[in-house]
Design brief:
Elements: H1 3-25, H2 30-35, H3 43-49, E1 56-60, H4 66-73, E2 77-82, H5 85-98, E3 102-106, H6 109-115, E4 120-126, H7 136-146, E5 147-158, E6 182-185, H8 189-193, E7 210-213, H9 218-227, E8 230-238, E9 240-242, E10 251-253, E11 257-259, E12 270-277
Parallel strand pairs: 1-2, 1-4, 2-3, 4-5
Antiparallel strand pairs: 5-12, 6-7, 8-12, 9-11, 10-11
Length: about 280
């Protein structure tokens, strides 16, 4: 790893640490939520995952572990991996407090995938994973490496088109074909999304620490997955966003979703990809 890449990763880690503290302050007692049977997964990822009971599942870039624990609730032997020590510490405590069995590893995910001796039946990533990877080809190669033969890869992700729209829904945002890096703090998307992401409290704090992210077109993502040795089974595009209010003009819909306002042509806000290891 080059010195500049190491510096970028450390900056991104610090930004995510700050953002994670803010995000979790917005939420109520999360341990009680899970003890009461709570589950934060959406139908789209559950459909693509299928049954995961008694399977070994790794959740890449797991953040604070809420989705990871929801996978455990569905019977998986699950491991979460994330760069942020703040997120991993929170996830480990949440697992202990809820009694749900999950293990968590603090690591840079690409390096970890290329070094770990562990192998999994399912590799899962969702909602803001791929944009934080500088070399997505190595990320996909890592996915292929840690999958068992015929293992499944599932990714539900925000569509790269969404970052091209400005706050007025005009195409004044990021150029769809610009690679990056884009340098800006990790935002308070939890507070901006309200109860769709379990935000119930105002937080008087902001994150000003820069993080590094990259842009990939949907064509690049699919091509890199295939080049890594994954056989794509499903590629869905969805005209709604689960949980996260990606643009202030989106309007709330049932099921903790955000949709295009009336009178606006619907474009994809998310995609879902499922593949197997060849």
């Amino acid at each position: 790893m080059t010195d500049s890449r190491h510096e970028q990763l450390q900056a991104t880690r610090k930004s995510w640490n700050a953002a994670t503290r803010i995000h979790n302050l917005h939420k109520s007692d999360q341990a009680q939520f899970f003890r009461d049977g709570g589950d934060v997964l959406f139908p789209e990822e559950c459909e693509l995952l299928g049954s995961i009971d008694s399977l070994d599942v790794v959740h890449l870039q797991c953040n604070s572990g809420q989705d990871t624990l929801s996978l455990a609730r569905r019977g998986a032997r699950v491991t979460g991996v994330d760069l942020s020590d703040e997120a991993i510490g929170f996830a480990q405590k949440l697992a202990t407090d809820t009694g749900l069995a999950a293990s968590f590893i603090e690591a840079e995910v690409v390096e970890w995938m290329h070094q770990t001796p562990e192998r999994f039946d399912v590799v899962f990533a969702s909602y803001g994973a791929t944009p934080w990877i500088a070399e997505l080809d190595k990320w996909f190669a890592g996915v292929q490496r840690i999958l068992r033969p015929q293992g499944r890869f599932v990714c539900v992700e925000f569509h790269p088109l969404v970052w091209s729209f400005g706050p007025d829904l005009r195409p004044t945002g990021d150029d769809y074909f610009k690679r990056g890096p884009f340098v800006e703090p990790v935002g308070d998307y939890v507070g901006e999304s309200g109860t769709s992401l379990q935000s119930v409290a105002e937080v008087d704090a902001t994150n000003e620490l820069p993080a590094y992210s990259w842009q990939y077109t949907l064509g690049e993502i699919v091509t890199l997955a295939v080049a890594a040795g994954l056989q794509i089974q499903v590629l869905h595009e969805y005209p709604f966003s689960n949980g996260c209010r990606l643009n202030p003009q989106l309007v709330a819909a049932p099921g903790r979703r955000w949709v295009w306002p009336p009178g606006i042509a619907q474009l994809p806000l998310m995609y879902g990809l499922a593949a197997t290891r060849r």
